[in-house]
C-alpha cells in the first residue's frame, strides 16, 4: 500500500487548514504559558514534510503512465520555413544556392529556420548579401510554455529565455495495456509516416518509437501506439475537478508541475491529476476536457482512426449563460435538423448532453461523439431550465 493510500493528500490538507484556523483564534491559557517555540532551524516542519511526502507519492502514482512525445513540426511551421526563403524566391547563382542549401542541411532534426524578407520586392538581378541575410534571418524557438517565437541571430526573446530549438513536445497518457498513447494535441496524419516515426520518452524511464493511429481536430486529441511497452496504463478515469479543489497540474511539455487550487477559468495548459490519484483530464487556457467525456473519442480513434459524431444541427459558440454557468450558446438552428425537431431555439444555452456538462467547444465535440439515439439535452432559456430529447444519429466528422 502506498503512502498516499495510507494518508491521502486531501485528508492532510484538511488538517492543515484546520490548524490554520486554530492559529487565527485567541491562544488558550495553557498555550500562552508555554515557552517560545523553537526556530525552524531548531525543529523540522512536520506538516511541510508530510505535504512533501504526499505530493511525491501522488506524482509517483501517475508517473509510470506519463510519457513525453516529440511531435512533428506542424504544416504551418514548415510552410513558414519555406515562405520568403531566398532559395525559392530569388534567382540565385548556382554556387550561392548550393551554399545556402548546405547550410540548411546542417540543421538538426526538429530545428527550423526561416528567412524574413522586407516588403519591398527585390529586382530579379539582386543577389542577397551576407548583411541582408543576417538581418532578416530568424530562428523558430519553442518556449517552455509551448509558444513559438522568431528570434534574430545572437538575440534572445524579450525576457531573455530561450528553450531548445526543437519541434513541439507534449505530455502524453498511456491509455491501455496495448500501448496506445493519448496526446492532447492535434497531429496531422501527413506529418507522421513510417520514415518519420515519433520518439516517446517515459517519465519513469525508457524510450520507444510510436506510430500514428488517428487524430481528432475538434477535441484536439491524437492517439499513437508504442512499438514496445514502456511504463503502464495511467488511471485515466477522472472528471472535471470541483472549483476550489486541490489538483496537481503537470505542464503540457512535461517539464514542470505544481499543486494549484482549481478554478473554472484556469488559464494554463497541462494534465490535471486529482488528489485521488486519477488523471482528471486536460486543461487548455480556460477550457477543460475531462477524461471521462473524451473516452468515446479515444476509443473510436483506436478502433477506426476517425471519429463519428451525431448531427445535432446547431451552430454554437461558448458563452456565459444567464445563471453564470459557461455553456454552448445556440447561434443558429438548421431547419429540419434533430435540434429543431427537439425544440431547441436560437438563443438557448445548451448545458449538458446525456448528463455530461458541455461548457466549451472541445467538451461539446467530445460529448456528442458518444450519442446514438434518444439523447437528453438540458438547456437554459432565459431563466427557465428545460430538458429536451433529440434523436441523434452518427455521421462522419459532423457536429
Overview of this protein structure:
This protein has helices at residues 3-6, 9-23, 29-33, 46-62, 75-82, 86-89, 94-105, 130-136, 291-304, 338-342, 361-368; strands at 66-70, 113-115, 137-142, 148-151, 169-174, 180-183, 198-202, 207-216, 221-226, 246-251, 257-261, 269-274, 279-284, 287-290, 308-310, 314-320, 326-333, 349-353, 356-357, 373-381, 384-392, 394-396. It is globular, with a radius of gyration of 26 Å. Helix content is 25%, strand content 31%. It has 399 residues and is of the alpha+beta class. Residues 1-7, 10-33, 107-112, 119-128 and 159-166 have low confidence and may be disordered. The protein has a 6-stranded antiparallel beta barrel with strand order 1-5-6-9-8-7. Strands 16, 17, 18, 19, 20 and 21 form a 6-stranded antiparallel β-sheet that branches. The protein has a 5-stranded antiparallel β-sheet with strand order 11-10-12-13-14. Among the domains are: 75-120 and 129-151, no CATH class; 168-226, Trypsin-like serine proteases (Thrombin, subunit H), CATH 2.40.10; 246-304, no CATH class; 308-396, Pdz3 Domain. The protein starts with a helix and ends with a strand. The chain has 11 helices and 22 strands.
Amino acid at each position: 500500500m502506498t503512502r498516499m493510500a495510507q494518508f491521502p493528500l486531501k485528508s492532510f490538507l484538511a488538517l492543515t487548514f484546520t490548524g490554520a484556523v486554530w492559529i487565527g483564534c485567541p491562544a488558550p491559557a495553557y498555550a500562552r504559558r508555554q515557552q517560545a517555540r523553537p526556530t525552524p532551524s531548531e525543529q523540522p516542519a512536520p506538516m511541510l514534510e508530510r505535504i512533501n511526502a504526499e505530493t511525491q507519492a501522488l506524482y509517483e502514482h501517475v508517473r509510470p503512465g506519463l510519457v513525453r512525445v516529440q511531435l512533428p513540426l506542424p504544416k504551418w511551421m514548415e510552410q513558414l520555413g519555406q515562405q520568403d526563403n531566398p532559395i525559392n524566391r530569388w534567382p540565385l547563382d548556382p554556387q550561392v544556392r548550393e551554399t545556402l542549401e548546405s547550410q540548411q542541411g546542417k540543421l538538426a532534426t526538429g530545428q527550423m529556420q526561416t528567412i524574413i524578407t522586407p516588403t519591398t520586392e527585390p529586382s530579379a538581378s539582386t543577389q542577397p548579401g551576407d548583411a541582408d541575410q543576417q538581418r532578416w534571418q530568424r530562428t523558430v524557438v519553442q518556449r517552455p510554455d509551448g509558444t513559438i517565437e522568431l528570434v534574430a541571430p545572437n538575440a534572445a526573446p524579450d525576457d531573455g529565455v530561450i528553450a531548445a530549438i526543437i519541434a513541439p513536445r507534449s505530455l502524453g497518457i498511456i491509455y491501455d495495456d496495448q500501448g496506445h498513447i493519448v496526446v492532447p494535441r492535434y497531429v496531422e496524419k501527413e506529418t507522421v509516416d513510417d520514415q518519420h516515426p515519433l520518439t516517446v520518452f517515459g517519465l519513469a524511464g525508457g524510450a520507444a518509437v510510436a506510430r500514428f493511429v488517428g487524430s481528432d481536430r475538434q477535441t484536439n486529441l491524437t492517439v499513437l501506439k508504442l512499438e514496445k511497452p514502456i511504463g503502464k496504463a495511467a488511471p485515466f478515469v477522472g472528471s472535471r475537478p470541483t472549483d476550489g479543489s486541490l489538483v496537481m497540474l503537470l505542464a503540457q511539455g512535461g517539464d514542470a508541475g505544481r499543486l494549484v487550487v482549481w478554478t473554472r477559468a484556469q488559464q494554463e495548459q497541462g494534465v490535471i491529476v486529482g488528489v485521488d490519484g486519477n488523471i482528471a483530464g486536460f486543461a487548455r487556457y480556460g477550457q477543460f476536457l475531462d477524461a471521462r467525456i473524451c473516452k468515446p473519442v479515444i476509443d473510436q480513434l483506436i478502433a477506426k482512426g476517425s471519429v463519428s459524431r451525431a448531427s445535432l444541427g446547431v451552430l454554437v459558440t461558448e458563452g456565459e449563460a444567464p445563471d453564470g454557468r459557461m455553456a454552448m450558446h445556440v447561434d443558429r438552428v438548421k431547419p429540419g435538423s434533430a435540434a429543431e425537431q427537439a425544440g431547441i431555439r436560437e438563443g438557448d444555452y445548451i448545458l449538458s448532453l446525456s448528463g455530461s456538462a458541455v461548457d466549451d467547444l472541445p467538451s461539446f465535440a467530445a460529448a456528442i461523439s458518444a450519442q446514438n439515439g434518444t439523447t437528453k439535452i438540458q438547456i437554459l432559456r432565459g431563466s427557465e431550465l428545460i430538458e429536451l430529447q433529440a434523436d441523434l444519429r452518427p455521421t462522419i466528422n459532423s457536429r
